[in-house]
């Protein structure tokens, strides 16, 4: 009886000592939480700090809203000239997909594979249905990567000290200059033995301010006035440039 009691007590202590992680067993702070696009905006960075279960690797992921993307497929007409041929529509394309991690995604097993842009784009629908999907998805990733809107190795996540079963982490993620205003999601995902063991998520807002905001309101709310103002600015700019080049020609 005493032996049985001892075994049960030992099993209970062992169970209490095994960490059981779940969604929410992480904390994360993001700076800034709102990115402001003014006239001098040319890209920025977002600093991320947090706590994750000890022994796990960290993947940080920023995803933008999904929308439609219309493109033209180029092909050779009669085997001679490159021309725009078919129209293609992609449904469910995120405007931004940035990933930074403490180890390359290829070394994080099944969870790392699921976090790659290629896996994320599996949910995209393409019209027409007869389009060569693998080739088009590959070209879409290359295009977005070139525009810096998709980045799978955007920054290294540095792991810090361990305390009470948790480990600190810190990273700085680059945000591209071609960023659309809207709501984005920044997720911190802990991966251990190829599996996701914990995750936390925060909103990241991007908004226009000052002159860009004024011009956007003018364009969408007062189209005629915006057109007149744009024409005046173009005429004045052309006149100033003409005067500058004219004065330089006289100097020579």
Automatic annotation (TrEMBL):
Keywords: Membrane, Signal, Transmembrane, Transmembrane helix. Residues 1-22 form the signal peptide. It holds the Pfam family Alph_Pro_TM. InterPro entries: CHP02186-rel_TM. The chain crosses the membrane at residues 224-245. This is Transmembrane protein (Alph_Pro_TM). It comes from Oceanidesulfovibrio marinus.
């Amino acid at each position: 009886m005493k032996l049985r009691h001892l075994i049960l007590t030992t099993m209970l202590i062992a169970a209490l000592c095994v960490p059981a992680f779940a969604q929410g067993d992480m904390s994360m702070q993001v700076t800034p939480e709102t990115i402001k696009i003014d006239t001098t905006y040319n890209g920025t960075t977002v600093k991320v700090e947090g706590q994750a279960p000890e022994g796990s690797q960290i993947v940080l992921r920023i995803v933008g809203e999904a929308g439609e993307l219309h493109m033209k497929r180029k092909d050779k007409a009669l085997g001679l000239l490159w021309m725009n041929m078919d129209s293609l529509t992609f449904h469910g394309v995120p405007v931004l997909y940035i990933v930074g991690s403490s180890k390359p995604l290829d070394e994080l097993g099944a969870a790392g594979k699921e976090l790659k842009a290629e896996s994320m784009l599996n949910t995209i629908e393409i019209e027409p249905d007869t389009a060569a999907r693998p080739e088009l998805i590959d070209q879409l990733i290359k295009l977005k990567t070139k525009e810096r809107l998709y980045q799978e190795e955007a920054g290294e996540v540095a792991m810090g000290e361990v305390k009470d079963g948790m480990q600190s982490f810190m990273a700085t993620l680059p945000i591209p200059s071609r960023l659309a205003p809207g709501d984005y999601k920044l997720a911190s995902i802990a991966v251990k033995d190829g599996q996701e063991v914990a995750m936390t998520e925060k909103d990241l807002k991007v908004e226009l301010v000052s002159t860009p905001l004024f011009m956007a309101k003018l364009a969408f709310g007062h189209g005629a006035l915006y057109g007149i103002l744009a024409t005046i600015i173009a005429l004045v700019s052309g006149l100033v440039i003409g005067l500058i080049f004219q004065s330089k020609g006289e100097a020579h």
